[in-house]
Amino acid sequence: xxxxxxxxxxxxxxxxxxxxxxxxxxxxxxxxxxxxxxxxxxxxxxxxxxxxxxxxxxxxxxxxxxxxxxxxxxxxxxxxxxxxxxxxxxxxxxxxxxxxxxxxxxxxxxxxxxxxxxxxxxxxxxxxxxxxxxxxxxxxxxxxxxxxxxxxxxxxxxxxxxxxxxxxxxxxxxxxxxxxxxxxxxxxxxxxxxxxxxxxxxxxxxxxxxxxxxxxxxxxxxxxxxxxxxxxxxxxxxxxxxxxxxxxxxxxxxxxxxxxxxxxxxxxxxxxxxxxxxxxxxxxxxxxxxxxxxxxxxxxxxxxxxxxxxxxxxxxxxxxxxxxxxxxxxxxxxxxxxxxxxxxxxxxxxxxxxxxxxxxxxx
Length: 363
Description:
There is one protein chain. This protein is an alpha/beta fold. It has helices at residues 44-50, 98-101, 155-158, 164-175, 191-203, 215-223, 238-244, 261-269, 293-297, 313-325, 344-352; strands spanning 4-11, 19-25, 32-41, 60-61, 65-73, 85-88, 119-120, 127-128, 138-142, 146-148, 183-187, 207-212, 228-231, 251-256, 271-279, 302-305, 337-339, 359-362. It has two domains: 4-162 and 330-362, Quinone Oxidoreductase, Chain A, domain 1 (Alpha-Beta Complex); 168-306, NAD(P)-binding Rossmann-like Domain (Rossmann fold, 3-Layer(aba) Sandwich), CATH 3.40.50.720. Strands 3, 5, 6, 9, 10, 17 and 18 form a seven-stranded mixed β-sheet that branches. A six-stranded parallel β-sheet has the order 13-12-11-14-15-16, sandwiched between helices.
């Protein structure tokens, strides 16, 4: 086999419109695989790459929230086989780093990536988003970046577990450890926040409060399991509104899916005296937080950050797909629209306007 040239979506420079271009995919290295992409969600992280919010290693090959079929495998690949239906993941745990050896592989940051680079036809090396790069007909990744799931599943639905939906589900279920009978609030009801709501419902929470300033998003949240809603633009104080819905106590677990100092303060004070705050919304580097230290001291509970929903792809993806297939997890409700590979720029606009939970590129 020799290298292939396929169509892919790149961001050439900060803030420039995306381009659909020819991308050269090399032969896989010994533990690499080529995956033919079936569907890839349009995630806010891709927009952050495009806008320069991650780093300046342009040009980027965008897309990372994907599912597809293994087409070619390297000489030493044993984890997957040609023909396997897989969801791509960006935490291919190494098993050797300090976190892995201490039994906390969801904190692994020595994750595996492909041994070779995809390039433009002139040889310019592309930086794949989150080590994946999946707005493309075929992508090159490490074998451990593939997680086999039920091949009967709609790829547009399965691929969502690759990033945003997993981040939200895991923020509630893994990081927040939501349990039966808990009260939960979620600030910010986009894709990640609504996934946290779905996760809280799945985990058995009885009071689930959705908080947003957009009535349409609050409707989405209700459809995914919220029992109460608070429109932040219509109440005097979000904290009091949460306490009013929980007998004055505040919630057991609150998820901040926005990631701003204002929303974090609301989360900090809207929880029960020993409640848990989970930050899953991504702040920008210049943001700072100022709170009285005595307020930290006078409250128990936990303040946590959730990276990728503290997930283990090999454990969580197949289990969540099974729950979806059983009708217990409505993942299909996150797919707002299905678009083509040439429609990524429009999908970014729809995302920024708050019109979609997820646009999914289908190939």
